[in-house]
Request: fold
Amino acid sequence: MAELWDAYDCNFNKIDNVTFVREGNEPTSVIPDGMYHLVSEIIVKHTDGTYLLMRRDFKKKYGGAWELTAGGSVLKGENAYDGAVRELKEETGIVSDSLQEIGRVVRDIHHAVYAIYLCITDCDKNSIILQDGETIDYRWIDRESMLEMSEDELISKRQIELIKEYKL
Reply:
């Protein structure tokens, strides 16, 4: 099933009348230099201070690695916040409408602009729903243990820096 994405500039401004297409795991449209697709990522922190880590499906890039965020590409017509709410529900089952944006990152190599959100939740920690084809496991981990994880285990470098910077 194809996904349609709006085009953005490096300042997170939508570019009118430009749409990108993705089928499978890779864009089928070539994203030209200077244009980007929008990605929302969500760090999930429980009210008890632990963080939700999701383990990537082995069929995906970095398969088997742990990731600090839920998230993905924002669909055509969505804004970053609505995409984050949708992705959070799809990948974890958590429903929240009180996400806080904590950072933005531009990655020229991926032709992507990232809006990063924090979700603080008091959900039942055993109620996480894994999304088929995306994630295969989850766990809750305290901040100190997460910061001690090796680069081979945890692929969320940008988010780790935000946690350190904002003392989340």
The first strand starts at residue 3 and ends at 8. Helices lie at 80-92, 143-147, 157-166.
